[in-house]
Amino acid sequence: MRPLYKLYSPATEDTDGLVNDATGATSPLTQLSTGPGDGLAHQIAIVSAANLSAITFTLTGTDADGVALVEAVTGPNATTVESTGYFKTVTSIAISATLGANTVDLGWADEFVTPTIQLNTYAQGVSGNIDVTGTIDYTVQATNSDIRTRADDGEFNWFDVVDATIDLIAITADVQFGLGPIPSGLRLKANSYSASATAALRLVHQNNL
User: Fold this and answer.
1) What's phi and psi for 202, nearest 5 deg?
2) Which terminus of the chain has a lower count of CB atoms within 10 Å, N or C?
């Protein structure tokens, strides 16, 4: 199997990139965009100087693999709250009650996940390396869920990869790693990053001759 190469270049964090200074009773909120357009799925930030904790924000969109995703998020209390889910796109933002004279911003945070990479579970092993530029804190994650039933089964069961020779959790530098036994899928999860950071992933399956 040919080596796989993916270069991830996340958009700069923009906490009002979806909605800027929304106010009043309109639902769904008028959006400036549906997302950063970087091909990654980000957690969504909801920001307000007011107490909006009595209001539920229902986010509708897609996840990193383009599958429908809906999440209800309790509004912030003079702070910032973030969605649990990672959204590649947000197509609708409904509010459960009026904002009144208060204002709120919504946008994408500096946490993201990549689309799922399907692995060949019949291979003897998988070797990979990740090269980063700029400042980024990331974790390698894997799943043993059935990739073929993604749309039917919902969110995969993801777990942090533990390599016998190197830590792949919350790392900030280049790494080289091996997987065996092989999970069905792999992704990178960014815990934080700065503007212009990138992560380049290369994977090679070690097949029987």
Assistant:
1) -125, 130
2) C
